[in-house]
Design a protein that fits this description.
The complex is a heterodimer. Chain A is an all-alpha fold. Chain A contains twelve helices and no strands. In chain A, α7 packs antiparallel against α8. Chain B is mainly alpha-helical. Chain B has six helices and no strands. In chain B, α1 packs across α3. The longest helix of chain B is centred in the C-terminal third of the chain and has 29 residues. Chain B is extended. The chains are: A mainly alpha, B mainly alpha.
Chain lengths: 248, 122
């Protein structure tokens, strides 16, 4: 046992790969077989992660020495590196096809999510510009929140709220899209492109559209892919200035 | 070779972060402003440029795609290392903000679709 503990201690990152792999496998299994894909595996895996974080304090589960490698795998270096790499999935020609409607939807989506998020956070008692900006960014996607939060030096609990906000958005988008699709005219590629940009969460949009009409998935996912990048660009810069000017 | 792709990604990442940090210093925030977004833009443009020149070998591309497939696991690890205890003690803010933003977003879809369609027809 002592040998095993030493081994894991020395190879923390490798053990973290194993731990996350097991979490993902279990979550996707539960999503497919228990919840009949009503909640995407990604959302379940993130919720499991957030629940595991309960076992520690400031650094979540990484506070337990056995799981210290999780801090490296989930740290800002690998996070930003992998987020940048997702830009490979975006094809400039397809973006041109999506055209103006998608672009407007994309910008409106990021702007309205952010400012509605900030507005609600201010009603709920937040007054400092960094926390307001981080929570507003979390209302864009669960990536924009922590990226913005760590850029501005937000506290870990506010970053956790911003991630949780993004996760709630994934779940509501996934479950809500098939229910509300007809009412909002979401039955053609054009509105799917707008929808992807407005909602922003790639996993929520892809899962929600798959449950509505699988043909619409690429159109929605296309603009959604850009939402996180746009949010990461705007939230810690222009939006932070605006919030800082109002609340700072 | 796959490492070429990883190296290209690393270059875009670092240059993006550098621009982000420069911008941060320029506007007086001690930190990274939009570095990730700049990195993504650089990668899209670099990808496009190399593809046009026929310099992007499939293996090079695979080196980048591996990391993009790792982004969800990294996010899972990230959520497991957050200060969740403190977040919950702050109250149900995440649920309130998440639900209201999403539902409002749904109802913006027909509105924006209309605007977009009109302008496309012009």
């Amino acid at each position: 046992m002592e040998i095993l503990e030493k081994l894991i201690d020395k190879n923390g990152l490798i053990f973290a790969f194993l731990v996350v792999g097991v979490i993902m496998w279990t979550s996707y299994w539960v999503s497919k077989n228990v919840l009949r894909k009503k909640i995407p595996g990604v959302a379940i895996a993130i919720i499991v992660g957030l629940m595991l974080a309960f076992f520690g304090d400031k650094k979540g589960i990484a506070d337990i020495s056995l799981f210290s490698g999780m801090a490296l795998l989930g740290g800002s270096m690998l996070r930003d590196f992998t987020v940048v790499s997702t830009a490979m999935g975006a094809d400039l020609n397809k973006i041109k096809q999506a055209g103006l409607a998608g672009t407007i939807g994309l910008f409106v989506g990021v702007i309205f999510s952010f400012f509605l998020g900030v507005f609600l956070a201010s009603i709920l008692g937040y007054t400092d510009a960094v926390s307001l900006t981080t929570i507003g960014a979390g209302a864009c996607t669960y990536i924009v929140g922590p990226v913005t939060g760590s850029a501005l030096g937000a506290s870990s609990d506010v970053i956790a709220i911003s991630i949780a906000t993004g996760v709630v958005k994934v779940i509501v988008t996934t479950i809500g899209t098939p229910i509300i699709a007809k009412k909002i005219g979401l039955d053609n590629p054009h509105s799917a492109v707008v929808f992807g940009g407005l909602m922003g969460t790639t996993s929520g949009v892809a899962a929600g559209l798959a449950a509505t009409d699988p043909k619409l998935v690429p159109y929605g996912a296309l603009t959604a892919t850009f939402s996180t990048g746009l949010g990461c660009l705007l939230c810690p810069s222009i939006f932070y200035f605006i919030i800082n000017a109002v609340w700072g | 070779m796959k490492i070429y792709g990883v190296a290209l990604l690393a270059f875009c990442f670092l240059l993006g972060k550098f621009i982000g940090n420069l911008l941060g210093a320029l506007i007086g925030i001690n930190g990274d402003v939009g570095g990730v977004g700049f990195g993504m833009l650089l990668l899209i443009l670099g990808n496009l440029y190399l593809k046009r020149k026929g310099l992007l070998a499939p293996l090079t591309e695979k080196g980048i795609l591996f990391w993009s497939s790792m982004y969800i696991p990294v996010v899972v690890a990230m959520s497991a290392t957050q200060n969740v205890k403190a977040a919950i003690s702050e109250g149900p803010i995440a649920i309130i903000v998440g639900v209201l933003v999403t539902v409002t977003g749904f109802f913006l879809v027909p509105l924006i679709s209309k605007i977009g369609r009109k302008k496309q027809n012009d």
